[in-house]
## 1
Amino acid sequence: MFKLKAENGFNNITGKRLTQLRHEKNISQRQLAKMMQVAGYDVDHHFIRRIENGERFVTDIELVALAKVLNISIIELIDDSIPISAPDCD
């Protein structure tokens, strides 16, 4: 089974954008994790770090939660300029 990845090897196209938005709002990874916990989402700062570093896949549910907590639209979290690798279908 193959897994879709961005051409840069990342497991998501959200991480770099999340980092940018978090910095614009002057929020640390720990603060964002706390904000998500207060909103009822069981995450820690490692969750945020792994998304931002492209180590972790991001589900649609997580996109919605991040957008709600950051008070932004989901589309603002998605960097569609990042090319996605086509899987080998050998």
## 2
Amino acid sequence: MKPLRTFIAVNVSQDTCRVAGRLIKQLAAVDDGVRTVQNQNLHITLKFLGEVLVEETPAICNAVERACESLSSFEISCGGLGAFPEQDRPRTLWLGVHQGQQEMRALQHRVDQETQQLGYSGENRLYVPHLTLARIRHFQGDPEKLQQLFDLYNPGPLTETSVTEIITYASFMERGLPRYEVLGRTKLK
């Protein structure tokens, strides 16, 4: 059986998806080289595991359960346009997490620790919780238009999300677009 491209994530509220959707449309209009994320695929990744054998998925879901067993649900707010590696050389454009950043980092750290026990590599950089909106391979557009969006959305409208569950997903490519399938759900207290 073919391995599954797997990741662990938090979904965001409909309000956050609406704000992100407006920004995604504006980003797409800046340059043809901007590849935007589909609204139904918006999430905050906690851990990307890569190619995983199907028979390993129950152990991964159990690791997520262990990571979350003593954690309570919490609130986050999202807003502000950011970029990796930096604003002057954007490759990934994202909506950042403001309120709840420490809680997201603690959650990501626990998930990271539990999946390391299964042999997956750990994260050695500071985790920056964010909602990926678009990726840029070769920007050919007007940098000033992109800068206007950075200015307009910083801090931008802040939206609220209740983090109540962690989802383990498999990702499949269909006609050049990703489709996500839930492998497991873990509720927070």
## 3
Amino acid sequence: MGKLKIGAIASGSGSNFEAIVNACETGILKDKATVEVLIYNKAGAYCMERAKNHNISYVLIESDKHRGIREEFDQKMIEVLDKYECELIVLVGYMRFISEMFLNHFKGNIMNIHPALLPSFKGMHAHEDTLAYGVKVSGVTVHFVDLHEDHGPIIIQKCVPVYDTDTKDTLGPRILKWEHKAFPKAIELFCDRRLHIDGRIVRIDGEVKL
């Protein structure tokens, strides 16, 4: 069986994108997966430079200039991802919802990462919300994507301590370090067919260590 073909979608810096690429090139995914293409929706986003540095194809589909319905935008992405025969889609800092059409096209094989322990602190301001609430533990969640924000079946979570002195500028990097480990591990489990979805529960064959 050949390597799993991954398509990545990003809106910003793309550090999780690069972590996955590095895992494919020299890490735990080296013999299991390849990143075929990056789609990014914000002109000037640094994720494009990361793709260029790794000789990975990249395509800009600007959401700011799109005035149609969401399905029309998603269809443009589908055409690119199908061209590269992508089997797993990873959302690496993609700041838009996907449509039911997009979800169905890829049979639910879409993963996202969130910098908090879902279902707590959904949305774009997870670190700020975490600190404002005063929790003592935050972390990382990798999950399958469904039609709701930060809601789909959870694959991996990793706890990260929150200190009294933390700001988003200190908590964020501490969590990001684990994001870069958790996302490739979730993809490895997918490649190894160790993930089994039962309702909203993801059952995993064997022990998982990050």
